Amino acid sequence: MPSKKPLYYKQLYLLIFRNVGWIGILSFLVLFFAIPMHLVLLDKKEYREWGNNIVFQQILDINSVIQMGVLLLTPILIGIFLFRYIQNKAFSDLMHSLPVSRKFLFHFFTWNGFVVLVLPVVLNGLILMAAYSIFDLGIFISIKSIWSWIGIFTVYTSVIYFACIFVGMLTGLSITQGLFTALFLLFPAGVIFMLFYNFSTYVYGFPLEKYISDKLIYLSPILAPAIIYSNYSDLKVCIAYIVVSVIFYVAAMLLYKRRNAETVYQTLTFRNLRGLFKYTVTICFMLLAGLYFQVMNNGIGFHLFGLLIGSLIGYLIGEMFIQKSWRVFNRLKGYAYFFIAVVIVAGVSPFLINKYEQYIPEENDIKSVAINDSMTYTDEAMKKLSSSENMEKVIEMQRELIKTQNTVEIYGESVIPLTIEYKLNNNKKVTRTYTINQDDYSKWLKPIYESKEYKQQVYDFESQTNITEVTLEFSYEGGAITITNPEELKGFLSALTADKQKESYEDMKTRYISSASISILKENDENNYNYYDSFITLKDKQTIAWLKKHGYHNELTIKPEFVEKVVVFKARDLGIDINRDYDYVPENIEEELDKLSNKVEVNTESLQKEIISTYSYGKEKYAVYVKTRDQYGLEVNYITEENLPESIKNSLEK
Length: 654
Known about the structure:
Blueprint lengths: L4 H30 L1 H6 L2 H4 L16 H19 L6 H8 L5 H33 L8 H26 L5 H26 L8 H4 L12 H7 L4 H24 L15 H23 L3 H24 L9 H26 L7 E7 L10 E3 L2 H16 L11 E10 L4 E9 L4 H8 L2 H8 L7 E8 L5 E4 L2 H16 L3 H5 L6 E7 L6 E8 L4 H9 L13 E8 L15 H10 L3 E4 L2 H10 L7 E7 L5 E6 L6 H8 L1
């Protein structure tokens, strides 16, 4: 008997090679021509200008589309073809009649398939290391990036591979194994996204951006391209995927030991999972259709219709998969039960939703509060407020938001998202997000934005030691200046911080056209530039004075000698829409301005300069027409009521 064992093993090895060996060979060749051969054939002279900088920070950047295709398809194909024998009755009976346990067969096939999966990656990694010195690939890649590539490729293909094997134990059809694997890996992120998006329709203040942020993609390994390019070095994600792979492996082994050989050709091999599968498909289609109708039309009626039609379609599709037939319209009894359950949940939910919407933590339970008015929720974007005055203002503002939620119309250019996050004494967080008209809530926002603790988090550059470069890009004169000298950086940032600490709330929320944008380079910043979301204008007197003193180009606005005409008027009085670029022709503007009786032509150079330096984007009550003698031609923009000189304002209001 022992003498027959080597022959027996040899036949199993040959069977595995016939089933999946071709996939491994194909994977190796694709990766070989996409990476090592590609790098060897590149013209190195063309890349010498990069100097000491490596061209490709990660090997995944080389022919990335091809690599991602291999990363996603190879593990699924190997997982399908490796256990093909359990999806063919005659073949399954033959394999399970061998004098070995099912546990042995599972381990033998799984780990040999894993070798076929990983070997092409390892071999190409070794080829890259050998070619590194021979073909002078040091200008393209680093040795560290090769090891990183091998590790990332192995981890991400492994989790997809073991997931595919796990799904294969639940179905008796190869085509459904591949389809269900993709859906299974997309399910966590997909269902959470759809659930929260549908939920946000009915819950006022629900912080959708917090729950569907970029971190959501980590729940679906099949979104590997997005995950990898969002953070190359996230060790926690790799460790989590290794743990998940082990779980899939153990679960697949247990299912294989309990799987009946007679379940080949069945959509689901375990009968007690059919109900779970059917209603999971029903819920997914219900949420997907609800999401579609919500995006296409914000009406609640259309959204409810989408939920209803989606759930019905999903239920029928689930039944069709289980019965392997389209004749399932006589099996709607289960859908009736599902519909009744949904109606009961919908009937109870308003009480829970109202409690959620009205909830504001007690002031004594609050440790601190943070606010954020950007579109994206991140911990870094939240501005922490711990002073009692600011916390009281935030609580008052939220009470007003809750009170007026059904009476205030969201409109105009001043609409912003506002996220409020309370950190309680027990370290729990309560987060709400509202869409508000900024002007309507300036009573509360103004003292918060102008407070010292808020501005220190937004504008405190003077105390930062990791800033190595500041770049200013000018609106009118074009070009940019770059400051890198440590002493000059210190002086500039000190002046900038001083100006911004005195900036008013109105100036903070106004986007001035006559300005220079600021971008900051920080040491060890992988993305190089951290774009600081602000600008300097002529109101930043200390910063402008510092630029002049050090001889830097600082033309933030049109030079007075180029100005031919400046006219101020009420924006609503003009007969054309000044926001539409194709109306920006001299004939149209001059013609409409001639019709206006209520307008003021500004001839004083100092007033012209003051007005031009403070007009802005965004709709305001007043507008400014500027005609120049140079390439700028003409401009029509808005100016806030606060920035318009009193003499002109009084003339227009007569």
